[in-house]
Design brief:
Number of strands: 0
Radius of gyration: 20 Å
Order of helices and strands: HHHHHHHHHHHHHHHHH
CATH superfamily: MFS general substrate transporter like domains
Helix content: over 70%
Shape: globular
Largest sheet: none
Number of domains: 1
CATH class: Mainly Alpha
CATH architecture: Up-down Bundle
Distance between the termini: 13 Å
């Protein structure tokens, strides 16, 4: 456990946040570039949806194996492995640009990203205490959102002038820079001890161990959290497919669509820190409810979009709402995991990440199929309805379960 919180924020910035921001920019560039590239080749929306979900599919495939590897190797070695996977897969995209080869390389990139994020979340879980964890986790979410803001902005500037190969080369360069920064920062002394080592020391007393176990989540609670995690991450990932398809459908250029996504990402970042404060002060569920109430409006606007003005309004609304959910599901998972020994926690974090990535992978593919059958307006309206159902679920059933589980341990 870290006592000096000035030192922990400096250490977290250098070792986690700054490399994560740079890596997220590369991911943000790929997230918008892949569907635009596949649309330009004339593929059916079903296959574009598969391509849009390729990074999430890679996440999904490596989540649980990644937890096993993390448990064996430790976070530092595990992070190095993720860097190699990310760099090599993005390098392959520079030279191999057949649509299906790009999809395969994106899946590999997603696997590396899964390992990278799992290592970052593991550190947050076991080095940051409960009362600061919401803000620490929201900064992880903010790092991803900075990627969603800056990445598409870079694409908007490059794609019409230089073409796709230079976009992929930039992604590769960014992954290398992020990896080098992390290697340098990891040599810095760590300002404190692991939380789990203190937990294990306290649990030598059987009575304390038994009392602590009463706050562990039951199967029903875990099932509720899992469904919520799938829905939350699924709705978030759906915009990666709906936005470019709708934008191209009303006649916008690749650079214009990328610019809209970039501005949306800026609003996403703007509302990220308040999300952490709301989580720590008002509760994890309150941040989720605010986030998806706004996103429901945004997706409903997207469903009726027929011009650029309405397109920008809907995309910016979605981005602003998404920011208020920054780090919410990471924090909920960390609240549960922090009660476990680190060897068990690594596996649970991997499973928790797998559940979220399942939603991120399934939703774009399902939305692509729905677009082919019912059209893009109905599909966007359906995502708006799911967003509303998430708000209702967190207001009624899930909030009580969070209150029982997500409370700090008493020494």
């Amino acid at each position: 456990m870290i006592k000096d919180y000035n030192k922990i924020w400096v250490w977290l910035f250098l070792d986690i946040y700054l490399p994560s921001i740079i890596m997220a920019i590369a991911r943000g560039m790929l997230t918008i570039t892949l569907p635009l590239y596949l649309i330009s080749t004339g593929l059916d929306p079903v296959y574009v949806g598969l391509g849009s979900a390729s990074i999430a599919l890679g996440n999904l495939l490596l989540d649980i194996p990644g937890g096993v590897i993390l448990r064996i190797t430790g976070e530092k070695t595990f992070t190095r492995i993720s860097m190699i996977v990310l760099s090599l897969s993005s390098l392959g995209m520079v030279f191999l640009q057949h649509p299906w080869i790009l999809v395969m390389l994106s899946i590999i990139f997603g696997g590396g990203r899964s390992m990278w994020l799992l290592a970052r979340r593991y550190v947050i879980t076991y080095y940051v205490e409960y009362q600061y964890r919401g803000r620490a986790s929201s900064f992880i979410g903010m790092s991803e959102r900075l990627g969603t803001f800056i990445g598409p902005g870079i694409v908007a500037l490059m794609i019409d002038r230089l073409g796709y190969p230079w976009v992929f080369l930039t992604c590769f360069t960014l992954t290398v820079i992020a990896g080098m920064l992390n290697i340098v920062a990891s040599r810095l002394p760590m300002p404190g001890n692991r939380i789990d080592s203190e937990i294990e020391a306290r649990h030598r007393n059987h009575a304390q161990d038994l009392a602590a176990s009463q706050n562990q989540p039951g199967l029903l609670s875990l099932a509720a959290f899992s469904v919520a995690q799938i829905a939350v991450q699924g709705v978030r990932s759906s915009r990666n497919l709906l936005v470019p398809i709708i934008g191209k459908g009303i006649g916008m250029s690749d650079s214009s669509v990328s610019l809209a996504v970039s501005i949306s990402g800026a609003l996403d970042v703007l509302s990220s820190y308040p999300a952490g404060v709301i989580m720590d002060k008002k509760g994890r569920h309150v941040a989720v409810m605010i986030s998806f109430s706004i996103m429901a409006i945004g997706f409903l606007l997207l469903a009726i979009t027929n011009n650029e003005t309405l397109f920008y309004a809907s995309v910016l609304t979605i981005g602003f709402g998404n920011g208020f959910g920054s780090g919410t599901m990471i924090t909920m998972g960390a609240d549960i995991v922090s009660r476990m020994r680190s060897d068990r926690g690594a596996i649970f974090l991997a499973i928790w990440q797998f559940i979220g990535d399942l939603g991120s992978a399934i939703f774009p593919i399902s939305i692509g199929l729905a677009i082919s059958i019912w059209g893009v307006s109905v599909s966007s309206a359906a995502i708006s309805a799911i967003s509303t159902s998430i708000v209702i679920a967190f207001k009624t059933a899930i909030s009580n379960k969070i209150h029982k589980i997500a409370q700090p341990r008493q020494g």
